[in-house]
Specification:
The complex is a heteropentamer, with two copies of chain A, two copies of chain B and one copy of chain C.
Chain A: H1 12-15, E1 23-33, E2 36-47, E3 51-55, H2 62-70, E4 77-82, E5 85-86, E6 94-97, H3 111-117, H4 120-123, H5 131-143, H6 159-172, E7 177-181, H7 189-204, E8 208-212, H8 219-222, E9 225-230, E10 232-238, H9 239-242, H10 245-252
Parallel strand pairs in A: 3-8, 3-9, 6-7, 7-8
Antiparallel strand pairs in A: 1-2, 1-4, 4-5, 9-10
Helix pairs in contact in A: 3-6, 5-6
Chain B: H1 2-8, H2 11-36, H3 40-61, H4 65-88, H5 94-115, H6 135-154, H7 156-164, H8 166-171, H9 176-198, H10 200-206, H11 209-215, H12 221-246, H13 250-268
Helix pairs in contact in B: 2-6, 2-9, 2-11, 2-12, 3-4, 3-5, 3-9, 4-5, 4-9, 6-9, 9-10, 10-13, 11-12, 11-13, 12-13
Chain C: E1 14-18, H1 21-31, E2 35-39, H2 54-62, E3 65-68, H3 77-84, E4 89-92, H4 128-145, H5 150-175, E5 184-187, H6 193-199, E6 202-205, H7 216-228, E7 233-234, H8 243-252, E8 255-256, H9 272-287
Classes of the chains: A alpha/beta, B mainly alpha, C alpha/beta.
Bound molecules: adenosine-5'-triphosphate (2 copies), magnesium ion (MG) (2 copies) and zinc ion.
Chain lengths: ~280, ~290, ~290, ~280, ~290
């Protein structure tokens, strides 16, 4: 029953309270860029219906982990298994939001056209959009408060609107697994609140959400589980267990304690005084 | 009416008309990919790679349209797909890789021709003329266009996705690398087939200008394809009649007609036209679009 | 292109279209008042490329005979043949003239190691006797196309042949001013093999077939040969960039003569006689004993 | 005395307690993209030594205001005056950090080379780097914790590291006015804390800092003044006066109150349920 | 030693050597801009714009190297700067604008030539050979190179800044628009001047390959300039000697030598070489760099 479930319906394991949820298992994952090893022997197991935060300092390997899961980077070692199969085989079940979308902002594409791209895996490369697809696109637009801007060319948006458009595309995909690399970046407060709410609901309906996140304060509010990572796995588990000051200190190094600075003087520029070394 | 019917009595105009419609539509449709892929000049350079290819083809298999076609195709594929490989496996952009490969191929061609003489002035193969096309040309253009159109219409969604955002395409399961090669291969096929029929200059013009014109008028990606095809076919047919009545070269007339349409769009586009821009980024390169 | 025949030629029976300005002259000489000649290439046009306009195609199509110079000069000929269909007779005037292959072993070439080897030299019109043979041949071909006037064509050809003999005698006289030892014709490209054979010259094309492929040793050898043979003057070709040849002239410290017409297409020489007189005059002046 | 002050030394007005600080005055600024008016009649006056937050929803015109100040957009109407002169004449006194740097990430440029670009206005297009310039670059790198990565090609950085490199460039410029479009975006917690500290110090030494910012909670901690903007100026003034719930509501519209959603069911996808309309 | 000294006895080799060093360095240095600007193919296309320019130049001012040079320069500037203007004022990229403008210019040139025939084989004006360079060429190359090198060295910082991030350059007070025009103008000047001296193919090769090679080896922007210059000059000189000893065309030898160097760098670069890549983005187009 687990295998042939249509991934675009709310996950059955969630709503029927089935104890055996779909499993994502990462084991011994190592990814390097040439001689630089960005991730080393990271393992974790989680299930759909969860909201997992990836937390760690800049350069910790969060995006690298996401890219490896999305099939954009080939791991040096290790396995990523989704429902017992290599994740790479299940591209249609995954939605991926890049940290920094490198696109041609002059591309003749409207916001609606962008969000429609999220439906391609479901619609297939051939078929016409059904009313169902159009509805999904409409709803994603509305959720991200973009309905008014649907006809806008994507380059004619503000930074936060662009981010929202890409989030909307990931939503429109109605995927089983959502890989969101800093989805809150650049969003205004209302959008942040909406997205928080939405992620919770998506998890409730049985999606697995994995998101890189920098705002430590809001982690407990948004996420169920957290992976503290800094090249290696520092800790993984439910937020209340893992998100302790000790673990955070281990992850970020000694809490940043900027040396007190001398008052500005005239001879040397204040702007470039070393504040941490 | 006389104006329209009179030219059609000439058999060479009838055939040219068929080629205009076919090649104009197919190349115009494909020009959307060329414009989106920003590979207008790559197409131009590839047409130069054909020279050494034709030479080697004729050298190996003797002087015949088929050996020239085969040589040109193989050379263009080697250089075109080779440049993709170099670009993929280094930091260089494809245009740089292509420039290096095609000058090298050209230089190699000169050396080969030097040691093994062919008594053909190769460049003649590059100058075709639509009035001059044979039935074989017509057939080739038809089949190649049909294959390209069907393939690209089928693959339109993944291709657009890939052109817009390769990473997203990859994560959605599009075989990005393969698709890139297929796209370039089709482009080369169309280029080589229309070269024989209509000549180098016309092929290049038809493969860029139509969609570039539409690009100025719309934000809908789909419109680029059909619009490009229509402008390509319509412009070519109009120009053919003009060229007949003013007795000027058909190829030049088609290029200039298409360029004229482009110029009109550039001046007057309601969205992105020159006359419409008010506030704009002061920086160079692609000023931002406007209007809601 | 030019309409060679005015409205007076309306009653003419044989319509001839030509692909080379010298062939236009030949057709008029041989056809006389029985043909109307349409030159599809006007003097001065680049004979290597043919981009017909609609009226050119109409003229070619309505012609009974299309007269080409042949020997592979018109690489587009197979294409034209298949466009026109079998109804139109295409005559290659040059086919009556024995071919010269550009060859290293041939004593005609002082030094042309690899550079111009093996190619079939299409520039047969530099041979006056060749032109005579061509006239006879064309006369016969016109006769086949228009049997009613076959006699007249043969007579015209014969008469023209006599004029060519006279021209040849004049040319030999002029060239007799050039001492035997000085009979080395140095030109830019290998286009004068027929001339050299006819008048006992040796040919030294310093740029081989194409300027790009000339190597440094070859050039050194060419310069050495120029000096060794006591050549006084070397010749640029009309319409070509003189940079290469004048650079050689400078290196070898020899003079630069008047430009020769290599391709027979020049607006100052619209007839064959004028063309020959131009070239012979230039060569005799450049290499002769200083007089004239 | 105010006029010929070297802008790259700590602002004299700051350290000597001079009451007449350098003034930035925006009056009646209107900027449109074609027929879309992004900013309408915005006016404000502030002084160096202040840290000014630009706060408003996505698409409010924050980036547009920054770009107009940096000379990247030509205003339709209005004036931006710095020390009594049009700001456009004082490009060398301004550092600008874009919200989303559109650069070729493959460019053969190291992190250090990027930061050195910030010194170009001071060094001039000709002169060699002095020890003073090198020191400024070193310090900017150290401040943004990039010293270890100085030799890295800019494309081989994580998203947050890239953001830090561009911030470092703005710092190395030692400009009198810093226009920072969401400088905290993508930074990890330690870097956020360092930057907060640093902005405070820069203001103390007499720089004028204007930054777009989305994290409402941290505004009072970082900034002295705040401009609430939403196409028009909603409010402007010291944080404690302006940053009131009423003003925020006026700026962001009614506080985002997502409608409670029905529990997920099988027939309709949960991911695209409209949550605000 | 003999190997080195022997060729130097020929004056044409001496002059070619001087041009190799000068043009090799200047073009190699400039190739850094071409590679950073990703305009390799633009340079290639511009060289085609020269054709109609030369035609019109000769038509207006008669047949002389100067009129050809002026015509070529003006045409290239019109098309090149025109394409910048179109790109700046529309959403189109410069390469697309350039493709449209240059095909249109070419078509226009063909029409003009059709109506006002010039007895000139225009294409001969595009082919040069470094061995044929005259003292005038040498002087032109020297002065143009000197101007370009001095200007660009002076403007290096703003130009790099602009190429990397136009918005930042603008906000730092760089006159981005003007600088873009200046850069393209200089490129065209260098291109046209070296076309006459070394030929179309070689000019293009020299203007791309050297810096592309360095691009694979370094992350330091500055290294591109000096490294490009050195590779350009060194490669050209080496190839000149090779071409002498194997008696092959100098232009082809230089291109192939430079391409060989590029290939070596591509295979073996410690940073970005083919042999060094381990993990890489699966997506197409410029895989990410590696190493720390
Ligand atoms: N290039 C453009 N062309 C047309 N409209 C644009 C362009 N850039 C921005 N806009 C519009 O102008 C308005 C202001 O945009 P701006 O980028 O200034 O917003 P912002 O306050 O920076 O938002 P964010 O918080 O999302 O960065 C928005 O409605 C946006 O859609
Ligand atoms: N293309 C690349 N080439 C080489 N090294 C890279 C590349 N991308 C990232 N790195 C390095 O790999 C490590 C992990 O980078 P990654 O992008 O995964 O970090 P991150 O956790 O996402 O950081 P951030 O919070 O800044 O986004 C970093 O040290 C980074 O410098
Ligand atoms: Mg990241
Ligand atoms: Mg913004
Ligand atoms: Zn010839």
């Amino acid at each position: 029953m687990t295998r042939d479930l249509d991934p675009y319906q709310p996950c059955a394991a969630a709503s029927c309270g089935h104890p055996q949820r779909h499993e994502l298992a990462i084991s011994g994952l190592t990814v390097s860029y040439g001689s630089l090893t960005a991730l080393e022997e990271v393992s974790l197991t989680t299930h759909c219906g969860r909201c997992v935060a990836l937390v760690g300092p800049n350069g910790a390997g969060k995006s690298t982990l996401m890219k490896a899961m999305a099939g954009l980077l080939r791991p040096t070692r290790g396995m990523i298994a989704w429902r017992g199969q290599p994740l790479a085989r299940a591209t249609a079940e995954i939605a991926y939001l890049a940290q920094r979308s490198e696109v041609d902002w002059q591309f003749p594409l409207t916001v609606r056209g962008l969000v429609e791209m999220g439906r391609y895996p479901q619609v297939g490369w051939w078929r016409r959009f059904s009313a169902r697809d159009d509805a999904a696109v409409d709803q994603a637009l509305e959720t991200m408060r973009l309905s008014d801007l649907a006809g806008r060319q994507i380059g004619a948006l503000s930074g936060g609107q662009q981010q929202r458009a890409f989030v909307a595309r990931a939503l429109a995909q109605e995927a089983h697994v959502l890989l969101l690399d800093e989805p809150f970046g650049g969003l205004d407060r209302p959008s942040q609140e909406l997205l928080t709410e939405l992620l919770g609901m998506l998890a409730l309906s049985g999606r697995l959400i994995i998101a890189a996140h920098h705002d430590l304060d809001s982690v407990p509010e948004i996420f169920d589980e957290v992976l503290l990572v800094n090249r290696r796995r520092i800790a993984f588990g439910p937020v209340d267990e893992v998100f302790t000051p000790d673990n955070l200190a281990a992850c970020f190094g000694t809490p940043a304690q900027p040396a007190p600075l001398p008052p500005p003087d005239r001879d040397r520029p204040a702007g470039v005084r070393p504040s941490a070394s | 009416m006389h104006w329209l019917i009179d030219p059609l009595q000439h058999p060479h105009i009838q055939r040219a008309l068929a080629i205009c419609v076919l090649a104009g539509f197919a190349n115009g449709y494909l020009s959307a990919f060329v414009v989106l892929r920003k590979s207008a000049l790559q197409v131009g350079s590839l047409s130069h790679t054909l020279l050494p290819g034709i030479a080697v083809g004729i050298l190996l298999f003797g002087l015949s349209p088929l050996s020239a076609f085969a040589g040109a195709l193989v050379a263009a594929l080697l250089v075109g797909l080779g440049s993709l490989t170099v670009a993929r496996s280094s930091r260089l952009g494809q245009e740089t890789a292509l420039a290096i490969l095609f000058t090298a191929a050209f230089a190699g061609g000169i050396l080969i021709l030097d040691f093994a003489p062919v008594d053909v002035d190769i460049e003649h193969y590059l100058f075709g003329n639509i009035l001059f096309a044979t039935d074989d040309d017509l057939r080739t253009v038809f089949w190649v266009s049909a294959i390209a159109l069907v393939t690209l219409t089928a693959l339109r969604r993944p291709v657009i996705l890939m052109l817009f955002e390769p990473a997203a395409a990859q994560s959605l399961g599009v075989p990005v690398r393969l698709l890139n090669y297929v796209l370039l291969g089709l482009l080369i096929l169309v280029l080589v087939s229309s070269l024989q029929a209509v000549g180098c200059l016309l092929a290049l013009g038809l493969l860029v200008t139509p969609a570039a014109t539409v690009y100025l008028l719309t934000d809908r990606t789909e419109a680029l394809f059909w619009g490009g095809g229509l402008i390509g076919a319509g412009g070519a047919v109009t120009a053919l009649f003009l060229s007949h009545h003013f007795d000027i070269g058909a190829g030049a007339a088609i290029i200039l007609t298409l360029a004229g349409l482009f110029f009109l769009a550039w001046m007057a586009s309601p969205r992105y036209g020159l006359l419409r821009r008010r506030a704009m980024l002061v920086t160079a390169g692609g000023a931002p679009p406007l209007r809601d | 292109a030019l309409w060679g025949a005015g409205p007076t030629a309306v009653r003419a029976e044989l319509k001839v279209a030509t692909l080379h300005p010298l062939m236009t002259d030949l057709a008029k000489q041989v056809g006389g008042s029985h043909v109307s000649v349409t030159g599809l290439m006007s003097p001065g046009e680049n004979i290597h490329q043919f981009s017909p306009s609609s009226s050119d195609m109409a003229a070619a199509r309505s012609a009974d005979v299309v007269l080409a110079s042949g020997k592979g000069l018109e690489t587009y000929l197979p294409r034209l043949r298949s466009t026109l269909g079998s109804a139109t007779r295409i005559v290659e005037a040059g086919s009556a003239v024995p071919s010269i292959k550009i060859s290293a072993k041939d004593a005609l070439f002082v030094c042309c190691p690899q550079h111009a080897v093996g190619g079939l030299d299409p520039h047969w019109w530099h041979s006056i006797s060749g032109m005579k043979k061509a006239a006879t041949f064309v006369g016969k071909e016109f006769g086949k196309a228009d049997p009613a006037n076959a006699k007249a064509y043969q007579a015209n050809a014969a008469a023209y042949g006599q004029r060519l003999d006279a021209l040849s005698a004049w040319a030999k006289r002029e060239l007799s001013r050039v001492p035997r030892s000085g009979r080395v014709l140095v030109t830019g490209h290998a286009a004068f093999a027929y001339f050299c054979k006819e008048f006992g010259f040796r040919s030294l094309p310093v740029a081989g077939l194409s300027e790009e492929s000339v190597g440094s040793q070859y050039l050194a050898e060419a310069i050495a040969q120029i000096q060794k043979n006591g050549v006084r003057t070397i010749f640029p070709e009309q319409g070509n960039n003189t940079r290469a040849i004048s650079s050689v002239a400078k290196s070898a410290s020899v003079g630069l003569g008047r430009a020769l017409i290599a391709d027979g297409s020049a607006s100052e020489a619209t007839t064959y006689e004028a063309f020959i007189r131009h070239n012979i005059g230039a060569i005799a002046a450049g290499l002769g004993g200083g007089a004239s």
